[in-house]
Amino acid sequence: MASQQKIIRITTVPISLKVLLKKQLRFMSAYFEVVGVSSPGKTLGEVSEQEGIRTVGVNMTRSITPVQDLRAIWSLYRLFRKEKPAIIHTHTPKAGLLGMLAGRLAGVPVRLHTVAGLPLMEAKGKKRLLLEKVEKITYASATKVYPNSGNLASFILRNKFCSPAKVKVLGNGSSNGIDTNFFSRSPELEKTAGELRHELKINTSDFVFVFIGRLVRDKGIEELVEAFSRIKNQYQSAKLLLVGPFEPELDPISDKTNTAIKKDDRITLVGFQQDVRPFFLISNVLAFPSYREGFPNVPMQAGCFELPSIVTDINGCNEIIVEGENGLIIPAKDVEALVNAMTRLLEDAGLYNHMKSKAREMIVDRYEQKYLWSLILKEYEEQIDHASLS
After folding, report:
1. Where in the chain is the domain with CATH 3.40.50.2000?
2. What whole-number distance in Å separates Cα of residue 123 and Cα of residue 133?
3. Dihedral-angle region of residue 327 (phi above 0 means left; psi in -120 to 50 means alpha; beta otherwise)
4. Widest CA span of the chain, in angstroms?
5. Which of 23, 98, 139, 191 is the most buried (most CB within 10 A)?
6. Listed residue (184, 182, 152) closest to 168, CA to CA
7. How far apart are the first and last CA of the chain?
């Protein structure tokens, strides 16, 4: 039955198909004909090669652009009428809005939307009201909505974005799970990590706090650098490793923080890295004081390498991390709490070793990638069956 059916997976920009849904599309193509749709460009071609699927480029913007958005809806509508998919499945806010509207107009029977974080959580005033309206329109046009965490589902229902019957969390959350075999120690990785440690002048006696992600205000970089500056003189072994790019045009950090990062010889800045695994291997703790997340991959990746995590009490993070078991949970935007958590892990070897011993098994047990894929596949088949009966 399923092999004859077609599914169209849609994201606003192709990097989301390439990275956030890596390998999932190839897995699904064993059961369905899968078509990937996103904004055109070189990366979309790479998705086609990586996943072994056909891709189609449709111009979409991440910001509010009414004229371009109407053109995108028309392009998607025409694509759906031509391809006649059994399912369209959207990710990211703009692709969700455009894809669900076009899918409804085109009469696609099963219209699924995954919610992986809501920018409106940090918005205020008129912008917040507009973003809420967009979410409600998206969900109204979908036949099923999949928040990728329990807390996100609660937020959606509490704010009455759609009826409870439409909302479902698959498994323990996440959009793609984690490849626990890829994120695991190996002799080859250990060798690479040893070379990296030497190159970055990090000693085995150093206690390294690592951050991996975009170096922007929303990720809590201001608080992290401030907290580290407070503890570093008391703990000479402490170092801070920052892995990721700055985004000065979107969410810049302050000049003060930027200067502190570049002038402090105990802070190591390495920029964007294609493979982050060796950086986990030379670190002791993940410090991830983000303001908002969907269901973040980085704490799961860190856990796979037996790193306890310090995370903020926000959606996703407070589900991956269990207080005192595989990490510590602190309030967002709270430098004092971050200082206390970092200090606690530097001083309490018993607590640190307990969390280190639990970190990997707690990720493998709950977020193994192929388990989540099997749940998504089952959901596809059930939704097709349900649509055929209605």
Report:
1. 2-177+369-389, 187-366
2. 13
3. left
4. 68
5. 98
6. 152
7. 18
Tokens of 184: 């695991």
Tokens of 274: 């294609």
**Does residue 1 register a pLDDT over 60?**
no
Q: Residue 223: pLDDT band by 50, 70, 90 thresholds?
A: very high
Whole-prediction pTM: 0.86
Note the Cα 316 to chain centre separation in Å. Answer: 9
The Cα–Cα gap between 339 and 327 comes to 15
Q: Which pair of tokens denotes residue 200?
A: 């970055």
The pair of three-digit structure tokens given for residue 293, joined into one six-digit string: 């997340």
Neighbours of 68 (CB within 10 A): 14
Q: Is 3 exposed, middle or buried (0-12, 13-18, 19+ CB in 10 A)?
A: exposed
d(CA 279, CA 164): 41
SS3 365: helix
Contact 149, 168 (CB under 8 A): no
For residue 291, report the phi and psi dihedrals to the nearest 5 degrees. Answer: -85, -35
Other CB atoms within a 10 A radius of the CB of residue 198 amount to 11
- Cα 136 to Cα 152, 159, 160, 295: the distances in Å are 15, 10, 9, 21
Q: Which fold has domain 2-177+369-389?
A: Rossmann fold (3.40.50)
Model pLDDT, residue 120: 83
Nearest to 101 by CA among 74, 79, 67: 74
